[in-house]
Amino acid sequence: MFTEKDLRQIENKGITLETVKRQIENFKRGFPAVQLHAPATPGNGIRCFTEEEAEELRNFFDDNFEDYEILKFVPASGAASRMFKTLFEFMESWQGTDKDLANYRNDKSFNSPYNFFKNIRRFAFYNKLNESLSAKGLDLETLIRNNDLLPVLNTFLTETGLGYAQLPKGLLLFHDYPDGPRLAVEEHLVEAARYATDKNKTARMHLTVSPEHRQRFEQAVAQKKKKYEQAYGVNYRVSFSEQKPSTDTLAVDPGNNPFRKDDGTLLFRPGGHGALIENLNDLKGEIIFIKNIDNIVPDRLRQPTYLYKKVIGGLLFRLQERCFDALEALEDGNPDDAELENIREMAARELNIHIPAAYEGYEKMEKIDFLYNRLNRPMRVCGMVKNEGEPGGGPFWVVDKNEDVSLQIVEAAQMDMNDPHTREMVEKSTHFNPVDLVCGVRNHKGEPFNLPDFVDPDTGLISNKSLNGRDLKAQELPGLWNGAMADWITVFVETPLITFNPVKTVNDLLRPQHQAG
Fold first, then answer.
1. How remote is the C-alpha of 450 from its chain's centroid?
2. Exposed / middle / buried, residue 109 (Cβ in 10 Å: 0-12, 13-18, 19+)
3. What are phi and psi of 125, to 5 degrees?
4. pLDDT tens, 116-169?
5. Mean of the per-residue pLDDT values for the chain?
6. Contact assessment for residue 396 and residue 410, using Cβ atoms and an 8 Å cutoff
7. Which of 394, 316, 399 is CA-nearest to residue 350?
8. Residue 67 confidence (pLDDT) above 70
9. DSSP string, 355-402
10. Which is it for strands 379-386 and 489-494: parallel, antiparallel or unpaired?
11. What is the Cα–Cα distance from 470 to 476, expressed in whole angstroms?
12. Quick one: what percent of the chain has pLDDT higher than 90?
């Protein structure tokens, strides 16, 4: 199946032949659909806090954060091109005819090109676009007034101007302020100063970026960080990494044979955001907040975000303390029956650890071993928002192949929607995942966990793609907050909807929650 040249290519990427063969087997057998047990809902897997309880957890965070090394982790390699899908379609079809003009004016839907041009002054990139057009001897307002729209879009989207379609979201201007517009990555610098600092006022942030954009990210952060260091009295320590070539996955043809490019070499594709578990593992962190690059709001709406970042952070601190105390007692090997029962009850009630019926029949040392193994894992507290029709993964109780029940974040692509039980569980679900996590990744001795040990390899995804007109199948690794964290201790907390404000299309920046004033 593989030539000597193939083997050298595989080796050069840092991938083992065993891994490649396992990927081919995954294509052949497919990944099993996730077996849903029940939706996680308030009182059954999702914790909800009163204002007083939220305030108490925030205070607990503020009183204890100096004891920890805190890091803000931002996946930022995604390209922004999908934000502009509607504008690209418009560019391809627009010929300036009367029919084109009528269609343009009649489509006043939120994501329409008409809405984009009508409100163009409200975008944070307006002045930059105007400057870029002026450098070409063109006037933005005149072009729009005359319905001469293609020069505007070409200057906005292509490398003849701002080149926004070729940039990652983190390098786009998102919000406008009296002192100037801010890039998306700048807003994360602001956030890091408020909840990712240590006792020395060092604010740590790590961004995963694509190789072709790393230098621009580094330059942007270097140019902007001094402003916010002065404003918030912190020193930033910002680091970067890229998805490792060793996490790429082999593509296959429809017959599950290795897909070869026109030059005869094997086609490998990026393994998806699940590959970032390796980047997360390399950081050897202690407390890590994870949030997507596009889920940010301007300063005037940021207080609920700060509050609930500290709520989930404070809850993690508290739960880790209890978990570590229990582990130390279990490690001594001599807890009395009452103490053992308290640990079992804490594990089930506070940490959502499934205690099988067989546990009652275990000998004492078996109980100690069981609880120790269940508690000695990374821990994550995940914010969940009420589902108001947004797409995305949701919180569920899931049954694995060993009949163990646990809380998981499950994507729609992982579910068998032809199964009546699955459809029923989805219909009963009340919340979805906004990617708002805080993670504890060291054990009770202060040693970093090896995070790849806690990945469920059976939760990857297979999709159909094409290259140069030829069909192929691609494989994604278990998602970062899905299968890559499947064996973590997981706690879900309800957070306000205002904390979830992703930018999926350029016109999302027109929504009130992305207008700075």
1. 20
2. exposed
3. -90, 5
4. 999 999 999 999 999 999 999 999 999 999 999 999 999 999 999 999 999 999
5. 95
6. yes
7. 316
8. yes
9. --GGGGGS-HHHHHHHHHHHHSS-EEEEEEEE-SS--S-EEEEEE-TT
10. parallel
11. 19
12. 93
258-285 average pLDDT score: 95
Q: Quick one: what percent of the chain has pLDDT higher than 70?
A: 99
Q: Nearest 5°: phi and psi at 382?
A: -120, 130
Question: 353-399, pLDDT tens digit by residue?
Answer: 999 999 999 999 999 999 999 999 999 999 999 987 765 679 999 99
| Cα within 13 Å of Cα(268), Cβ side | 21
Specify the DSSP element, H or E, that contains 425.
helix 420-428
- Domain regions of the chain by residue span: 84-166
Contacts of 151 (CB under 8 A, 6+ apart): 133, 136, 138, 143
d(CA 93, CA 485): 44
318 vs 312: CA distance, rounded Å: 10
What is the C-alpha separation between 249 and 89, in angstroms, rounded?
31
Report DSSP letters for 347-363, one per residue: HHHHH-----GGGGGS-
List the one residue out of 280, 319, 349 whose CA is nearest residue 61: 319
Residues 375/330, Cβ–Cβ less than 8 Å:
yes
Locate 317 and state its tokens: 């601190």
- In whole angstroms, give the CA distance from residue 288 to residue 437: 8
Torsion angle of alpha carbons 365, 366, 371, 377, nearest 10°?
100
Cα–Cα dist 508/505, whole Å? 5
95: how many CB neighbours lie within 10 A of its CB? 9
pTM recorded for the entire structure: 0.95
pLDDT, average across residues 73-79: 91
- How far apart, in Å, are the Cα atoms of 179 and each of 69, 182, 227, 355, 453? 32, 9, 11, 56, 47
If you ran DSSP here, which 8-state letter would residue 57 be given? Answer: H
- Say whether 437 sits in a helix, a strand or coil: strand
Q: Which distant-in-sequence residues (6+ apart) come within 8 Å of 385 by Cβ? A: 431, 432, 434, 494, 495, 496, 497, 499, 500
Measured distance CA(60)–CA(54) in Å, rounded: 10
Q: In the structure encoding, which two tokens stand for residue 135, read together?
A: 């450098």
Identify the bridge partners of residue 250 per DSSP, sorted by sequence position: 268
End-to-end Cα separation, the chain, in angstroms: 61
Answer yes or no: is pLDDT of 258 > 80: yes
Place of tokens 């070729």: 166
CA distance 262 to 268: 13
What tokens were used for 74? 């931002």
| 142 three-state secondary structure | helix
Tokens encoding 489: 């201790």
Tell me which residue of 313, 269, 264 sits closest to 291, measured CA to CA: 313
Q: Which H/E stretch holds residue 116?
A: helix 113-118
